[in-house]
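call fold(seq) -> C-alpha cells
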Amino acid sequence: MLVLAFDTATDLATSALLEDGSVLGERVGTPRGVLEDVHALLEAAARTPEDLGALVVGTGPGSFTSTRIGLAVARGLGLALGIRGAGVSTLAALASSEAGAFAIVDARRQEVFVEGPRAVAPDDLDLTPETLCIGSGAVRYRATFERMGAIVPPDDDMRHIPHARLHASLAADFGPVDVIEPLYVRVPDAETSLA
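ret:
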C-alpha cells in the first residue's frame, strides 16, 4: 500500500512517501510548503494522488497553527481521495528514532512539550543523567538539559527532526481522516484572549 505521511507541528515540516513500509522519498521543509513537498514526492516516485492508499499525519503537540495546517491538509486529501488516515503524536515519532530517546518539542513561552503529553518549564523536568534528549526543545534548552546531565546531540543532528517515516512506522489504526484530533496540550492563545 502506498502511504503518504507528514508532520507540520514544529518549525520543520517533514513528509515521506512509503510503499509497503519502504521509503520511496522524504522531504524536510516548512509547514506552509507541505503540499509542495507532497507533490514533489509523488512526482519523483512517478505516482499520482489517486495511487495513495492511506495518510498518516502528525498530531502534535507543537505550534497550534502549524498543527492545524497538517490536519487540514490530511482532511482535505483524505476526503477528496476517499482514503483513510491515522494520527501519530509528534513526540512519539521523535522518541521512536532511537531506543531510550526522550523527545522534547519547543512549546514557546519558556516551556517544552514532553511525554504525557504535557507542557512544562525546562527546569521542572526531572531527567536522569545520560538521558538522550532530542527535538526542537532539546536544542533550544540545551544548556539546561546538559546541566542536568542529559545528552543533547549537536543542533544539526537528524534525530532532532520528527521524520514522517517514523510516524508511518507507528501508525496502526486507520480510519476516517475527519476524526483525527490534534494534541494541543494547552488552550490556544486565541481562546485565552477571548476569555
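The longest strand covers residues 22-29.
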